[in-house]
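Hey team,

Filing this mostly as a record. A colleague (T.K.) asked me to run one chain through the structure pipeline before their review meeting, and I want the input and output archived in the tracker in case anyone asks later how it was produced. No errors, nothing strange. Just documentation.

Input sequence:
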Amino acid sequence: MQELIKRAAGKILIPFTKWYLRKQRSFNYNGIRIVVSPGVFHPGLFSSTLFLLRFLENQNLKNLSLLELGCGSGLISVRCAQKGAVVTSSDISISALRNAERNAVSNDVVITPVHSDLFERIALQRFDWIIINPPYYAKDAADESEFAWNCGKDFEYFRNLFSQLPSYLHDNTFILMVLTKGCDLSTIFSIAASHGFVFTVIEEKSVPFDQKDFLYRISVSSSE
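Output structure:
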């Protein structure tokens, strides 16, 4: 069943999203109005972004350094900046990054945008929070718009993420990631473990098609 759902997502959901996002769209969340540029991940079409946002609403982020790794349209970055965080927003897609900058300006907040493949161009620093809504389909990206979906045939995104992550952490960094039951959780967990990281479920939520979204806190293993 899980494999059928993943195939359905690849053959139906992603093509539909690409078709829908051939034009600029707008989206409203909790008083924040954003535009979503063609080809950029739309935060309202799937549950992961809103799941992250609901959790973040109850967090005190004032004056904390926060990285949104893969910011897409920038909705999460904008909300965190509104809550007083010092926000760095990165994305491998230049279209997404420009979109996030535009949405920050239109909502009167400041973010620091960085065009980067994971941490490649992010200045070495220790963040208080790192927020990640990752791609997780085990396929190579055919174009820029697929970076939001595909993590590489051999899960290269996660292998690079967990190898680079330690340099940007301090002892109390809060790493937050959202994943779905429909992805290959065991492979992702195994890659993380090989670099000394463990996943702890914070919240879970049922979504359509017998699926669940999970919010995880990622921590350095106590054995490291």
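Quick notes for T.K.: The two ends are 36 Å apart (CA to CA). The chain has a mean pLDDT of 90.
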